[in-house]
Amino acid sequence: MSHAEPAEYPRPNATVIAAHNDAFRRFACLGIAPDQAIQGRLVVTQSLIEAGDGFVTEAVKATGAFDTFEPDNDPDGWHDFGAVTIRGETVFWKIDLYEAGSDFRYGAEAPDNPETTMRVLTIMMARDW
């Protein structure tokens, strides 16, 4: 009896995903327009808002400027998570990739294709994790 070989699916291109994630993060946080359209939204948690007095603005700007990616904090090379310190508080950010048009129910099938991928950048206090 022969066994069918498992289907081979192409691995997403981590370099392309990282570039798109960086471009989206810079656009969402710093207003720097990307070279191509990248769909997504920016979300901040309630505890970040409750920190008050410009804290959200500082956290958003620091998230947009973040560029310290290393194997320890970015093992997949997707640039989809980071941590910044604002006024002594650790703030996390993460980017989740969804299939466009799925109402954020399904992960992106081709996360390296910006036409079919919707990004959600969430900025939160570390304690929200």
UniProtKB/TrEMBL annotation:
<dbReference type="Pfam" id="PF12599">
    <property type="entry name" value="DUF3768"/>
</dbReference>
<dbReference type="InterPro" id="IPR022243">
    <property type="entry name" value="DUF3768"/>
</dbReference>
<protein>
    <recommendedName>
        <fullName>DUF3768 domain-containing protein</fullName>
    </recommendedName>
</protein>
